Amino acid sequence: MHSFSRPQRTVLDILRHRRAFASTARDRADDHKVALVIEGGGARGSYSGGMVATLEKLGYSTAFDAVFGTSAGALNAAWFLAGTANEHLWTWWEPRVVHRILEPRRLLTGGRAFDIEHLVETIYTTIAPMDFAAIGAHHTTLHPVATELATGAATDLHRHTRTPAGIRAALRASCALPLVAGPPVHLGGQRYLDGGLAESVPLGSALAWGATHVLVLRTRSAAHALAGNSGLSALMEVLAVHGYLARQSRAAVQAWTGRAERAEQLEEILGRPSPAFSVIRPPDTAPMVGTGERDEQLLRTAVRIGAAQVDVVLGDGARSLEGARG
Questions:
Q1: What kind and span of H or E run contains 69?
Q2: Mean pLDDT for each 10-residue chunk of the chain (326 residues)?
């Protein structure tokens, strides 16, 4: 993983300054490259959904130079740049959406447990319209991260986001869990699967892009950061990785089996105090939301907790408290 330089200003100070002057990536007065990095995790995206909605509400929509997201994180990155993360926050818990997109019983008849194609191509175009044109016109760039099937490498799909159709394809690729969400997505002559196979928190992709400062939105608390999957999520892992993926790409399987080691390394990196990055994540008391969670109240709770965590760190009250401490 690329390393940070040694900046003097903190990422939070830079973001507040940019918000105060309403600067955009086209007219910055500073030379920093600030990235928003959003972790994936299926239904755990309800946490980061609340987080990006609050960033939007607090006025940080133009404060970043790039937004990186993996899987569900890519979906929330897109909502953030579309400017309607708050308006469509309900899609993270509404049963008519959640139960249509996630239905494990479809696997019994050869279908998809996660119907990401329906989510992106139907729900995001008709029921809860995502403004893909606004995303493309935004001065902040969108970077969905997926796993290249042939190599198992995390891949930044920004180059495919120049058109609404390209954005939708890149989002589907970033969320293409092997087997349980359908076949790999073809883009530019390559086949891609869910970015979480190789990089569930796309920090490395952001640093490779050239980020000097990063705000990381996590969907796992510190207490659950290294926890493995259980229940439905564990079953889908067995089917997807040890069944389907093992027959498709040894490199992709190796990427998946290295996840635990990468997670430990990430915790170590983000645990070191640095002005270059800040991490917002659920508190240790927050409930663990499984990849395939469908409970409406639990998902609503996750959204509320995620929203509150951002407000604590970047809300005007947080700034006042910092001044009082100083």
A1: strand 66-70
A2: 68 97 95 98 97 98 99 99 98 97 89 95 98 98 98 98 98 92 94 95 98 98 79 65 78 86 94 95 96 96 98 77 38
Give yes or no for a contact between 156 and 205, defined as CB atoms under 8 angstroms apart. yes
31, 6, 5: which is closest to 18 by C-alpha? Answer: 31
Q: What is the CA radius of gyration of the chain?
A: 18
Closest alpha carbon to 228 in 239, 216, 220, 240: 220
Q: Which amino acid is at 220?
A: R
Catalytic residue annotation: 71, 194
Q: What is the pLDDT of residue 320?
A: 37
Contact 48, 118 (CB under 8 A): no
- Measured from the Cβ of residue 27, the count of other Cβ atoms closer than 10 Å reads 10
Count of residues in the chain: 326
- The pLDDT, as a whole number, for residue 230 is 59
Rounded Cα distance between 97 and 206, Å, is 31
Alpha helices in the chain (DSSP H): 11-21, 45-58, 72-82, 95-101, 116-118, 132-137, 164-174, 203-209, 231-237, 246-248, 250-257, 259-270, 296-314, 316-325
Measured CA to CA in angstroms, residue 282 lies from 45, 107, 146, 305, 310 at distances of: 12, 31, 24, 7, 10
* pLDDT score, position 232: 59
* Helix (H/G/I), strand (E/B), else coil: 71: coil
Angle CA 263–306–90, to nearest 5: 120
